[in-house]
Amino acid sequence: MSCSYADGLSPYQNKGILGLEEKYESGETLRIKCGLLADWIKSSRHVVVHTGAGISTAAGIPDFRGPTGVWTLEQKGLKPEKSISFDDAVPTKTHMALKTLIDNQKVKFIISQNIDGLHLRSGISRQNLAELHGNMFVEQCDKCGRQFIRNFATTSVGKKSLDTVCRSESIGGRPCRGKLHDTILDWEHNLPDNDLALSDLHSSVADLSICLGTTLQIIPSGNLPLYTKKYGGRLVICNLQPTKHDKKADLIINGNVEEIMTNVMKKIGLEIPGYNSENDPTRDPDTSSIIMDWTVPTSRIKEMKVLYKKVCKPTKRKRKTFMYERDRDDDDKNVLNKKNKTRKQSLPIKAENNYPNIVGDKIDKADKTDDDDDIVENKTSKINNIDNVKNEMVKIEEENSND
């Protein structure tokens, strides 16, 4: 359960803003906005979904910062009344809807901050999923780095040794005498390189990023959707509470993610299947099966780097105007041109000094940098007003009728 996971983490005071008030759209507004989101999904070429704890509350797993979240109650000296073990929880309608969207080529990639393993258990393949904070049902070798699916949730947190031997040889790999450890990150750990690399690349290539059940407060995970905006894509935020990036969103839907995804799938014309334990690899008794290998395929990273170079064009900085012009020789001009063409963000995100930092119950805004100008912000395109939503849908219907 999420409260036992939270108890296993090291003491940490700055857990973000807790207990924000939840907002619900009216039935008609929710229906119209979900219809617009469905149209955007159908018309987009590369959709990426960012998921947080809010998509697992329907499975009985409490979130962290909601009105009854684990850390919100902890601040009041209380414990969640309702909780369920990770082993007993099963994927929700939202998890199964995302699996269906991937199977039907409507969604390319899912970036999850959750450690509950419900995306894995829904049947999503590894090449379509990044787990930035770890997975309770996955263990990793400290020598070869390969990851393997477990039949039950780990009880340890913080990459601690599980006193088990690497399973690489048993599933057809090379012999390895490494020891396995859990994959759950503690506060001081860096995000897994391969998962973060794929998340960075997919977020940059995406023309539509959808955030489900997350307040986007934890960095660098919460800042990944901004890469989509940086390269001209749309950002949609579906959450009951306000988020850190609401002002940058093209569409905000305040509602329960289960209801949102049900409406969206109905509009797209796809049914949401129920959870099937036969497609759940954690229920496979054969631990030597090839499907138990959960290692990120490095070939996918190479493919995404190629796609990134084709799709994402470097953004030019605004040229500063000086009171006077300096004489530059040809060599200086060539150096300047090269600098303007280089990418302004590194692939592995180590520090996020250019974005707001969470400090207690306040968000301290960092100084604005030149990179902030790279984020495409067309204020007139934001679809947070219901009249604007209706107008946008009319335009889409007219375009479809003309086609």
TrEMBL record:
It is an enzyme of class 2 (transferase). SUPFAM superfamilies: DHS-like NAD/FAD-binding domain (SSF52467). Zn(2+) binds at C141, C144, C166, C176. Gene3D superfamilies: 2.20.28.200, TPP-binding domain. The keyword Metal-binding applies. GO terms for cellular component: nucleus. Its EC number is 2.3.1.286. Pfam families: SIR2 (PF02146). One of its GO terms (molecular function) is transcription corepressor activity. The active site is at H133. This is protein acetyllysine N-acetyltransferase. It comes from Aphidius gifuensis.
